[in-house]
Amino acid sequence: MNRIELFSHALKRTKKTAPAVALLIVACEVLNAADVKPLTPEAGSQAEKKTRTQWTITPDPSLPNVLILGDSISIGYTLQVRKLLQGKANVFRPGNGNNPVNCSGTTFGVEQIDQWLNGRQWAVIHFNWGLHDLKHVTAPGTSNNSNKSGDPVQATVEEYRKNLEAIVGKLKPTGARLIFASTTPVAPETTNPLREPDAPARYNAVALKIMETNGIRVNDLHAFCEPHLQKWQQPKNVHFNREGYEAMAKEIADVIIDALAASPSGNKQGNPKTP
Q1: Cα separation of 91 and 65, whole Å?
Q2: CA–CA separation, 263 and 158 (whole Å)
Q3: What H or E segment, with its residue span, contains residue 36?
Q4: Residue 230 belongs to what H/E stretch?
Q5: Are 11 and 41 in contact (CB under 8 A)?
């Protein structure tokens, strides 16, 4: 029974309050027509829902192709990066129709990386994993979130290292210029799931060694965001507000433009493996 039916039923049950109920019915009709939705707290991953209809892209075959891989943080900035690179590059990320795909942790990344890379010649790939690896879960390797510090993380630092090395091993043969984005900070008291503020530093340290070994450029988003967290990051969360995502998008677009300019002829065919 919808809201109007409920109030109509109330009207039949009493005559004394009929005028007041009638007013409520009119108000209900107005609300129903406006399709008013209850207010809910803003969450960073809502970027995945709000922008679903904007993810399709008709690429310009004369422009180089850029791939962005990452979790909901990258979903929050991808469309802005695409806007900033309009006329310079075709910017893609994994998706399922109009739905952007969250690349989640490195365990999922290892499983899906071949599919995400398939089908195009990539000039630049900007990638990140970490925030899902370091979150607490009820069982290792799963996505069953936990708020208990005694529960395991999705992937230990050592597992993260092995998985990230495997992913890099898949990325390098593409010939794209590779850019690794360091994992962004975790706000204190972040729950649902539990993430510890000191965890990104441990995972980033491992990732940076892998990138150094493989000659891969690093876009240090952790250091970029850290001085501005009070303005950019949501409290007790890993996600950012609009100002934060726009700032990261500008930083990322600049790094990608630089990488495109450094590639031989800057054309759509990609470039050598060296940074």
Answers
A1: 6
A2: 33
A3: none
A4: helix 229-232
A5: no
For residues 246-260, give the mean pLDDT.
98
Which phi and psi (to 5°) does residue 238 adopt? -105, -10
How close are the terminal C-alpha atoms of the chain, in Å? 62
> DSSP letter string over 15-84?
STTHHHHHHHHHHHHHHHHHT--------GGGHHHHTGGG------TTS-EEEEE-SHHHHHHHHHHHHH
DSSP class of residue 137? B
pLDDT at 53: 57
Q: Kindly report the CA angle at 269 between 267 and 271, in degrees rounded to 5?
A: 85
pLDDT in tens, 35-45: 333 333 334 45
User: How do the residues of the chain divide into helix, strand and coil, expressed in percent and rounded to 5?
Assistant: 50, 10, 40
Are 156 and 167 in contact by the 8 Å Cβ rule? The answer is: no
Calpha distance 260→88 (Å, rounded): 9
- Average per-residue pLDDT in the chain? 84
User: What distance in Å separates the CA atoms of residue 157 and residue 147, rounded to the nearest whole number?
Assistant: 19
For residue 110, the SS3 value is helix
**Could you state, in order of their start, the residue ranges of all structural domains in the chain?**
3-34, 44-266
Helix (H) or strand (E) holding 98: none
> Domain 44-266 falls in which CATH fold?
Rossmann fold (3.40.50)
Q: Token pair for residue 137?
A: 């879960």
For residue 62, the model assigns a pLDDT of 97
184-196 pLDDT, tens digit each: 999 999 999 999 9
Give backbone dihedrals phi and psi of 94, rounded to 5 degrees, phi first.
-55, 140
pTM higher than 0.85: no
Residue 22, SS3? helix
- Is the pLDDT confidence value at 7 over 70? no
Q: Is the pLDDT of residue 209 over 60?
A: yes
